[in-house]
């Protein structure tokens, strides 16, 4: 099945999407991954739909590949799905690299709407903080760099001058300053 999917990807014709719709939920990870690679080669709205659908795949690698595609192709309509995922209570339990990538994708694709959600997390002050909360805050600060707005830059500048050393360092990195 995987080889057939690979060949269809090389054809890259919009009609191959009909077959790929059957393989996107295949139990074998390798087939699903090849389905996404093939769908990406078609470059259509259906390809974008595949990548959005892949965000719900149980495999982290497939989700990360999908996020990369969505960012590279500026599929802004994916921001709603990403927002739903990051607002889920179980999101904080995901692996750190996955959390970081979701925040970055949300910032790139959601822009101002993402700023409204990420700003309170980035600027929240903790008296006692868990490692997980601090990590989420640092990832959020990094994601602010992807938002093209004056307000996001101002937040980063303010955080870079703050007393929290980790947050200040993350903000300086996001601004592209030397630490």
Describe how the helices and strands are arranged:
Layout: H1 2-11, H2 17-23, H3 29-42, H4 45-54, H5 60-72, H6 78-86, H7 96-110, H8 112-123, H9 131-144, H10 150-160, H11 165-175
Helix pairs in contact: 1-3, 3-4, 3-5, 4-5, 5-7, 6-7, 7-8, 7-9, 8-9, 9-11, 10-11
Please, could you describe this protein's structure?
The protein starts with a helix and ends with a helix. It is an all-alpha fold and 179 residues long. The protein is elongated. The chain has helices spanning 2-11, 17-23, 29-42, 45-54, 60-72, 78-86, 96-110, 112-123, 131-144, 150-160, 165-175. Helix 6 crosses helix 7. It contains 11 helices and no strands.
Mean pLDDT rating: 91
Class inferred from helices and paired strands: mainly alpha
Summarize the main sheet. none
Regions with little confidence, pLDDT below 50 for 5+ residues: none
- Measured by DSSP, the beta-strand proportion falls in under 5%
How many DSSP helices?
11
Shape: elongated
> What is the chain-wise order of helices and strands?
HHHHHHHHHHH
Span between N and C termini? 50 Å
Measured as a percent range, the helix fraction is over 70%
Secondary structure: number of strands: 0
Radius of gyration: 18 Å
């Amino acid at each position: 099945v995987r080889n057939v999917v690979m060949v269809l990807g090389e054809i890259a014709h919009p009609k191959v999407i009909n077959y790929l719709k059957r393989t996107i939920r295949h139990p074998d990870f390798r087939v699903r991954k090849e389905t996404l690679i093939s769908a990406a080669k078609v470059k259509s709205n259906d390809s974008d739909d595949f990548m959005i659908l892949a965000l719900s795949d149980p495999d982290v690698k497939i989700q990360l590949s999908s996020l990369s595609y969505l960012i590279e192709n500026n599929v802004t309509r994916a921001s709603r799905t990403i927002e739903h995922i990051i607002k889920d209570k179980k999101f904080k339990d995901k692996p750190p690299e996955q959390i970081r990538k979701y925040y970055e994708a949300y910032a790139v694709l959601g822009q101002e709407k993402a700023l409204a959600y990420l700003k309170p997390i980035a600027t929240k002050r903790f008296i006692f903080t868990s490692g997980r909360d601090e990590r989420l805050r640092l990832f959020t600060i990094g994601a602010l760099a992807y938002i093209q707005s004056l307000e996001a830059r101002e937040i980063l500048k303010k955080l870079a001058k703050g007393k929290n050393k980790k947050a200040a360092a993350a903000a300086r990195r996001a601004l592209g300053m030397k630490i």
